[in-house]
Amino acid sequence: MYTRPLARLIEQLQRLPGVGPKTAQRLALHILKRPEEDVQALAQSLIDAKKQVGFCKVCFHLSAEPVCDICRNTNRDSSTICVVSESRDVIALEKTREYIGKYHVVGGVISPMDGIGPEQLNIQPLVRRVSQQKIGEVIIAISPSVEGETTTLYIGHLLKPFTKVTRIAFGLPMGGDLEYADEVTLARALEGRRELD
Length: 197
Prior knowledge:
Elements: H1 4-14, H2 21-33, H3 36-52, E1 54-55, E2 62-63, H4 69-72, E3 77-84, H5 87-96, E4 101-105, H6 123-132, E5 137-140, H7 146-159, E6 164-167, H8 183-191
Parallel strand pairs: 3-4, 3-5, 5-6
Antiparallel strand pairs: 1-2
């Protein structure tokens, strides 16, 4: 149906998360309409990002430097660490502009079905970090799936001897109706309740 180079481009775009056949086709056709210098810039930015972006040696967030901007920022609260599963979670929390502490990215969740145990994640560096520094609180902000719960409990158990361990509250989204919420969400909403101001 497509000429071979176009078919290869569509095939590669389909490998991206959330990109189905129609989206891949639309993106490929859009790329072909762009001036060659725009396409060259896109290709070069992909290559540069792959070569230059790695992981912060302190928190394991994505960084082009050995230590990321957040870890180097002296205005942030070094006594608080928020533990997240992936770098995209750091980005989501940063968009709230509410959290001013540091982070630790564990790189996934414990999932025996997928062959991911604690040793495949950045959990031991977190334990070392918390045990060697004056950390007043570790906030665990891992999504409440079965694997996320397992990971949260595992990390909490390891860190409790060294510091206070909390988790973010989960509950109902703004504008959500109680009748449509599942039991786990409602239970979490009740657990995370707080006094009215």
